[in-house]
Fold:
Amino acid sequence: MERTVFNIKHMDCPAEEQMVRMKLAGFPSVKKLIFNLEGRNLTVFHEGGLEAIKAAITSLNFGDRVTESGLYDGVVITDDAVTDKKLLWTVLIINFSVFAGEIIFGLLAQSMGLVADALDELSDAFVYGLSLYAITGTLLVKKRVARISGVLQLALAAWGFVEVVRRFIEAEAIPNPLIMVVLSCFALAGNTASLILLGKSKTKEVHIKSSQIFTSDDIIANIGVIAAAILVYFSQSRIPDLVIGTVVFSLVLCGAVAIFKLAK
Structure:
């Protein structure tokens, strides 16, 4: 067994970690990958084939270099895939439940902030689905699911931007701030629970870390909708709701771009 450490200069987000993971998915010599997002390092445990591994990583043009390489006589502990699958299925169910609640009451409350947050929750459910495939799925399946998820997420973002523009132009009713606050608190509780559950994973691999980061972003979006609801209440204007809706739809669009990168 060999252990090689790569410093990857431009690997600074979960999407790029996933790209590296998928690039090396077809190498039988690779036994384990350990990512350090903060230090932009990747540790590869492998049985030979270093040049091929290095060539695959270099093809991503992330600015990689080998900082350490040599024999490794320790024990490589494989990921606890069963535990991770249970965690991801749990947060997927929570995520979809939050989506269902927000989309129904968001439409009833005429709040684009809630609708946007609901669609963001749905797009994150796509990410959790990809994470489940990242544990046991083949490279072909991962790419196929990534493309479908990217297209759906892009369509959601496009619809959202069109709807926000329409509501800016046309005279629409002021959204119900009470429903906005109650549903956002419900979503905040669900995302907080998901983040706690993901923190229990022992692997700390990219599919778990990326899910943690997406869930943290959801919490920020939830707080943003609560703030928008308060501003709607005091200003009696729909503008704060439309602004936060635009911001959240932008997050959905960024997520779609990241997923398309994974599908290349």
Remarks:
- The mean pLDDT is 81.
- The chain has two domains: 2-71, 81-263.
- The longest strand covers residues 64-71.
